[in-house]
Structure formats: C-alpha cells, structure tokens
Amino acid sequence: MLIHQAEGNLIMPLIQKRMISIPPALMLLGIAGIGALAGLLGFVLAAPIVVAIFVIVQKAYVRDTLKEDVTLPEGEANQSIDSP
User: Contact 43/34 with Cβ under 8 angstroms?
Assistant: First the structure.
C-alpha cells in the first residue's frame, strides 16, 4: 500500500509533468481539491479535469489575451504555432 501511494502521489505527477507540461504541485492540488468537492468520482476524474482547465486557461487567457507564447500540453507539433 505504501508503494502504491508513493507511485500515485509522487512518481505519477512527475511523469505527467514531462508528458503534459503541468507542474506536479498543480496536479496534486487539483486532485485533492476536486476529490474533496466531488468525492470518489472526483478523485477518478480529477486528472483529466485539471488538464482540461489548464489548457483552457493557457489558450484563453495567457495565449489569446496576454499574447504570450505558451507551450501547450497537446504535443510538440503545435508548440511553434503562434496564436491566430
């Protein structure tokens, strides 16, 4: 049980940071917050919800409103594309 907790709470956020460029602390806080609000189903769906919110904020606010270049978690193919 200890190994599973370490994997889920320490190792997976670090792997997710490399895969989708979201800070591990943000992912952990998102999982804890959504899980606290929505219960067991919230814990199960928290990671995709946090990623979706992160992408929406990056696209809608940082890239479009502030006109800054951002690296989105959708992959390296779209990283060099400027905002329309």
Answer: yes
Residue among 35, 55, 36 nearest 45 (CA): 35
Q: Give the CB-side neighbour count of residue 50, counting CA atoms within 13 A.
A: 25
Residue with tokens 């951002």: 70
**Helices assigned H by DSSP within 1-84:** 2-6, 12-20, 24-57
Helix (H, G, I), strand (E, B) or coil at 69: coil
Q: CB neighbours (10 Å) of residue 29?
A: 12
State the amino acid at position 44 in one-letter form: V
| Predicted TM-score (pTM) of this structure | 0.59
Residues 56-83 pLDDT 10s: 887 777 777 777 776 665 554 444 444 4
Largest CA distance in the chain: 48
CA distance 76 to 65: 22
